[in-house]
Every structure is written in C-alpha cells, then in structure tokens.
Specification:
Layout (H helix, E strand, L loop, with lengths): L9 E4 L19 E6 L17 E7 L11 E2 L10 E2 L12 E12 L6 E5 L8 E7 L2 H4 L18 E4 L1 H10 L6 H9 L16 E6 L2 E8 L2 E9 L1
Parallel strand pairs: 9-12
Antiparallel strand pairs: 1-2, 1-8, 2-7, 3-6, 3-8, 4-5, 6-7, 10-11, 11-12
Length: about 240
C-alpha cells in the first residue's frame, strides 16, 4: 500500500486554547459555539450546496498537537480513571498510528456570502486551530444505532461539580459580559464536567488550577462538589 497524503480543507476557531479543559467528546458542551473556516482552494459555496438541509455534520480532523509524539498499542482512557489500559483502537485517544479524529457537531449556519466560506457550529470538542481534513453530513438513519453498545463508555458523562463565582470573579464576569456574553455559560458548561486528571479527583484537592477559554485565563479551585472561580483575566 502506498502512503496517502491528506491536505487540510479548513481550520476551526474555537474557545478552547489548550488540551486541558477541552471537552473529551463532542456534544458535552452544547452551548459552546465555534467556526469552521475553509482554506483557500476549498472556499467555494458549491462545495456545501445542500448541506443546509442537515442539522448535524461530522468533522474529520488531525490531532495536530500530537504529530511528533508517536503512538502506543495501548492507552489509559480518562473514562477509566487513567489507570487501566485498553487497546488504542478501543479508544478515541489522540495518540494513534494515524492521528485522525472525528466529531459530530450541530450545524447552525453556513456563511457563503463573504470571501471566506465558514460554518457556524455548536458542541465542538476541538482545540482552536485544529486542521479539518473532511466534512460529511450526519445521517440519522445510518449514524444513530439504537441498539449499539458503548463498552466502558456506555453512559454519557454528567456534570458533577457546581460552578460558583467568587466576588472577584463575578465582578470580572460582569465587566467582560458586553464583549463576550456567552462567557458564563462557556465556563459553567466546561468546568462542571471536571476537567482535572482522574487521579486528582479526591475531595481534599487543594491545588489551584487555570485554563484558557476564548481570550480569558480562568483561575479556579475545587471545594468538595464545587468549583470556585477565583479570578478571570484577559490573556
């Protein structure tokens, strides 16, 4: 078999700036919006003719931050606490022989009026700048299988922490709301899923954490079943 060369057709612009706190699957943060911007040579409105009839699409993408990190036949999925190994092909780990991922997202709008073709989407789990190598329509009768079994990931992760804003963070949130009205929802939806490594999920965790969401640096700590947002700064 000859090697196959793949060229990105688009790039995603999302509020997730780093791996930490990026949702581990698509659809877990349904209020989070992102844009798929087609690259020159692929930005033709003809290429998306008929796509407006579909509510959801598949994005196939490259795990571009892992290209030089190799792969292993087994991985430790976060869903299993990070301490049990399964085969790489029984996981969605980015450390794969061919670092290709896929995500099902909601298609909100197609903007083909400007010079650059863009898709507005919802529920993405992709880091900002991720290269897209293909887009396909989500077809319910073929892609949704009612009797499918999910193995060790059979149930959908549920929000497990209540997000509380300190007085300082609440004041900053009010200051930033005019520029980014969706900021509170972005913080709540993302952090309520507890993005910490599984081995940090103990109740007496005294660490301070930080993550970058959109243009903001969010600082927080865990207090029992609560995440306390201590500060919000513009990067």
């Amino acid at each position: 078999m000859e090697n196959v060369s793949l060229s990105p057709i688009a790039v995603i612009h999302s509020p997730f700036k780093e791996k930490f706190a990026t949702p581990r699957q698509s659809g877990l943060t349904p209020s989070v919006r992102a844009r798929v911007e087609f690259l020159p040579g692929f930005s033709s409105s003809e290429s998306v003719r008929g796509l407006e009839g579909f509510s959801h699409i598949w994005l196939l993408f490259i795990f571009h931050q892992h290209l030089d990190q190799g792969w292993s036949p087994t991985v430790r999925p976060p869903r299993l606490g990070g301490n049990r190994r399964v085969g790489v092909f029984a996981s969605r780990s980015p450390f794969r022989p061919n670092p290709i991922g896929l995500s099902a997202v909601r298609l909100l709008n197609i903007d083909n009026k400007a010079a650059t073709l863009t898709l507005e989407i919802e529920g993405a789990d992709l880091i900002d700048g991720t290269p897209i190598i293909d887009i396909k329509p989500y077809i319910p009768y073929a892609d949704s299988i009612a009797t499918a079994q999910g193995g060790f990931a059979d149930s959908e992760p549920q929000p497990c922490l209540e997000v509380i804003f300190s007085a300082t963070a609440r004041g900053k949130l009010c200051d930033f709301s005019e520029q980014t009205p969706e900021l509170e929802a972005l913080i709540r939806d993302t952090l309520s899923l507890d993005p910490r490594p599984a081995y940090h999920h103990q109740r007496d965790d005294q660490r301070s954490y930080g993550c970058h969401l959109d243009r903001y640096n969010i600082r927080w700590q865990v207090d029992g079943a609560h995440i306390i947002i201590s500060d919000i700064e513009i990067d």
